[in-house]
Design goal:
CATH class of the largest domain in chain B: Mainly Alpha
CATH superfamily of one domain in chain A: Dipeptide-binding Protein, Domain 3
Largest sheet of chain B: none
CATH class of one domain in chain A: Alpha Beta
Number of helices of chain B: 15
Structural class of chain B: mainly alpha
CATH topology of the largest domain in chain B: MetI-like fold
Strand content of chain A: 15-25%
Oligomer: heterodimer
Number of helices of chain A: 21
CATH topology of one domain in chain A: Dipeptide-binding Protein, domain 3
Radius of gyration of chain B: 25 Å
CATH architecture of one domain in chain A: Roll
Number of strands of chain B: 0
Radius of gyration of chain A: 30 Å
Amino acid sequence: MLGLALLGGCADVWNNPYPGEGAGEGILYSAFISRPKHLDPVQAYSEDEATFLYQIYEPPLQYHYLKRPYTLEPAAAAAMPSVLLYDASGKRLAPDAPPQSVAYSVYEVRIKPGQMYQPHPAFAKDAGGNALYQWPDSERLGDRKAISDFSDTGSREVVAEDFEYQIKRLAHPHLHSPILELMSDYIVGLRDYAKKLRDTAAGAASVGWIDLREYPLSGVEVVDRYTYRIRLNGSYPQFPYWLAMPFFAPVPFEVDRFFAQPGMAERNLTLDWWPVGSGPFMLSENNPNSRMVLVRNPNYRRDETYPCEGEPGDERAGLLADCGKVLPLLDKVVFTREKESIPYWNKFLQGYYDASGVSSDNFDQAVQMGGQHDVSISDEMQDKGISLLTSVAPTVMYMGFNMLDPVVGGAGERARKLRLAISIALDQEEFISVFLNGRGVPAMHPIPPGIFGYREGEAGVNPLVYDWVDGKPRRKPVSEARKLLAEAGYPNGRDLQSGEPLVIYLDTTGTGVGGKAQVDWLAKQFRKIDVQLVVRSTDYNRFQDKIRKGNAQLFYWGWNADYPDPENLLFLLYGPQGKVKSHGENAANYENPEFDRLFERMKAMSDGPERQAIIDRAIAILQHDAPWVWGFYEKAYSLQHGWLHNRKPGRMIRNGLKYQRIDGEARAVARREWNRPERWPLLLVALLVTAMGLPAWLDYRRRERATATVNEH
Amino acid sequence: MFGYIVRRALYALPILLGVNLLTFALFFVVNTPDDMARMQLGAKRVTPEAIENWKAERGYDKPRFYNDKAFGVSKFTDTIFYDKSLKMFAFEFGAADDGRDIAEEIRSRMVPSLAIALPTFLLGLYVTVSLALLLVFFRQTALDFSGVVLCVAMMSVSSLFYIIGGQWLVAKIWQLVPISGYTGGLDGARFLILPVLVSVVAGIGANTRWYRTIFLEEVSRDYVRTARAKGLSELRVLFRHVLKNAMIPVLTGVVVVIPLLFMGSLLVESFFGIPGLGSYTIDAINAQDFSVVRAMVFIGSLLYIVGLLLTDISYTLVDPRVRLE
């Protein structure tokens, strides 16, 4: 208590978790729950990693911050890449040539001159122009354990060769890039290149730096200092989306060489830990167990400005107020690790985090639901100036049928009707309401709203599961499901031939809060059609194993789109992607030759009515075959304080920190007002201790002074 | 005593080997190297080739215990068990699955763990021993009875309740300290107050009751009656004589945990955002990082053995009748 009084006695606020950092400065305070596994741009793929990596690396393209649907625009590139199509004989084709006639396509990217990397010791040079920190052994490394321990730094201009170098890194045998296999199908020569590097690494005496500049890759060509070309097999219109990811951001060879020196990895000095980029921020503190800090990159290009146009309504929302201002608008971003939701939420309410998600624990405190399932911010939050942002994420959650299963799988009519009956019986609307607090939109097919191919209104409804009534979709009655079940040969849930009750097995990892309740709810849904559900709970590894081997019957799965194109969602049901057959992402092992043909046509097309028609047809096939119980599209809720500006929901836009702005003064005032320490409990505790101790002391004194008595008996 | 220590150290070797073997077997029963590779490589677009490469690079493609394709002693040394587990006897912990050096990580995380555990241990010991002696002083009175009831009530409550309740009351309602977080140096003290306070309070019930039982047994001995007959004050009797003579059972419970203070607390570190070894272990288990799990189990068992040895040695310090031979 005395310590408390001494530590906080002189300050207005005692509970500030950022000692030494001013609330009034342009610092954004955020939290992260899971530590990033990788920060190397050829390896990082998850959302936890994207939070940091997209601020540090700048790939050729990015999404426009405000426009919806998502629109690509140049980032490190000077303009959108030009695409040239060629046939098998090398003859140039028209841009609208049929995809099947395209033998290869060439993307030419011209980058902006004058872009510089963040200051880093890998670029530091001695008087002779040689790398300052390039040593033959680890002895001269001394006791350096962090990048900040290297006193000298340097920088250099970003050039086309750095983009080429990074594409080559995709094939590096020790880096295990998750997109190597995919890109090997497209980038000319990448598969052979990977093999060559593997052989080189295997033949090397020690694990060291492989100078990728000495190994040419036929699919990538540096035209001049600022221009490079990527040559792809066939037509791949989705390729520009990949150019908006750090997989294709520039990495200078000096950095790779710097970190490959002896002794570096042993001290955790690796590119996977200390990213080096040309983006708006750089990582200045990396303790992913506790705190990670991004600071403004002083070398970031000055021509990147806040957008001046967006969607209708953006101006009213104040999202265009910073039009034309040079980015980034923040000086620093402090990420603190919060493993538990309770401290995270309370610190947000105290003003120590500028934004927060809404978890089930705090949903009722943050959000109030209207009669028509409309949501608004609660009065308590409103009084604090907190606002709510909602958006539908490009994520689809579903329950998959294993199409290799003899009961629910296959192309036969019996199994199809059974799948449809289950699809109708499982009331997704109820699930979303009960378990997600309304944070979901019932899915009709794999494509979520906001992505080309999704249709609003009656045209977008799955007619086999829903009726269109009074301008709204209404789930078909259970009687319809029972009828389908009877047609499938299971009247009243019993096999017509054997008389045995129909038992469906759900494989799940169903642990955690609410797992049991969800299982009970599911069993209740199946009971509506007299089908017995047996839940086989298992750990994640065994579950994955079952899916890989095709031993599951029914399972939950989900997909978070890599980019806003229907190809990245419909491929989840593309036959050659079958999980059992080819370890692909088609976990249901669905295969329909007509759907596959339509998918192949659609994926090579540009957005337009023709593509929409093909998507409509493909979706109709999926709805007919029902390989999934179409679950829901996730709805993301986010809260932010009034002093945080320019936040617009959009899961695809992962480099959004540079656009955000903080009103530091308003935050400092609010923090002071909201965090006045209650000093009286200290006094109360002192009084209580005294009150408890005093009688004991008095009693002790009494006993000590008492005269001895003799028991006469 | 030196001979005794050497003998105990030698006994420790088969125990550590057994612990290693058990950890290894248990881990690989539920977790194959393929699972570990998938966990590291991510959920999306992982190919069988990438998994094989990952395993080969980290030596997980070898047989587990016996390599029938190798020759001579390599049949045993060219295995995962030898590579991953036996090398730890030379304190070679190697790298975690994410490439980070485990020894370096342990060194850096030991300080935050100790920053919580050491004050908790010392303060907790002081508070609970004092309270126990107080209850003994007022034995068979209403105060003693109330104290015991309170202790039973306190030890019946989950430690999670103390953590969440403490955060809610002290940090959220009274706003006296930060809810969670950690920083080094003097500034870090404000982050330590609440977790230390919560940990001490959470331990009061069980420990006070345990020490009270020990002291009660001691106060009924003849030497205590003699001390009182000589006219010594009750406080002097309790703190000078009873406490000293009750040291053997006290030390049995106390000294053994001293080395384990380095290992940190799983729950407290997680809720208070302390980047210590407790949260390191939890993260490793969640990430199925066998390299870290085996290192932490090895260190934990080693420290436990050291704690037991220290306990034995401490007996000789408080009781001259005890000799280690």
